[in-house]
Amino acid sequence: SGLLSRLQTSGPTIQTLSSSKPFSQNIPSSLWKLGRLNHVAIAVPDLEKARSLYKDVLGAQVSETVALPEHGVYTVFVELGNTKLELLHPLGEKSPIASFLQKNKTGGMHHICIEVDDIKAAMTELKKKKIRILSEEPKIGAHGKPVIFLHPKDCHGVLVELEQA
């Protein structure tokens, strides 16, 4: 009755995921599905310095700067093998990125964007589940597709953007 046998018999039971049952069986069926991570958005106080870091220092493929007046931002996309980074900089004084940068002077992660196969069905179901959506209707996002944002307080502190795939 050494230490090893005491460790084997006392202590918490660890349950493992069985490979014979698909993990998704516990997820209720839905009229819409989450897709892949489209991008992670980073608010930056100096867009050209950030653009240069990813392009010149790290060697990434980086887009030109694009103004999105409807969203109050300038965007630059950094292409990665499996997703993108979106660099965000304020466009105008009412930009949500300007207020973010007032609180986070050096910038930081702003939101994540996940693709969905049916944004309207997602909106309907999320509203029923008491998830607040920050606009009544989808807006056209940086990729020319409809997007909505979910309230960060309903998503464990993360601002989540859903984009029509």
TrEMBL record:
A cellular-component GO term for this protein: mitochondrion
Catalytic activity: (R)-methylmalonyl-CoA = (S)-methylmalonyl-CoA
Superkingdom of this protein's organism: Eukaryota
Domain VOC: start-end pairs: 36-165
Enzyme class: isomerase
EC number: 5.1.99.1
One GO-annotated biological process of the protein: L-methylmalonyl-CoA metabolic process
SUPFAM superfamilies assigned: Glyoxalase/Bleomycin resistance protein/Dihydroxybiphenyl dioxygenase
Region Disordered: start-end pairs: 1-21
Alphabetically ordered keywords of this record: Cobalt, Isomerase, Metal-binding
GO molecular function, one term: methylmalonyl-CoA epimerase activity
Pfam families named among the record's database cross-references: Glyoxalase_4
Biological function: Methylmalonyl-CoA epimerase involved in propionyl-CoA metabolism.
NCBIfam families: metmalonyl_epim
Family, per entry: Belongs to the methylmalonyl-CoA epimerase family.
UniProt protein name: Methylmalonyl-CoA epimerase, mitochondrial
Organism, as annotated: Gymnorhina tibicen (Australian magpie)
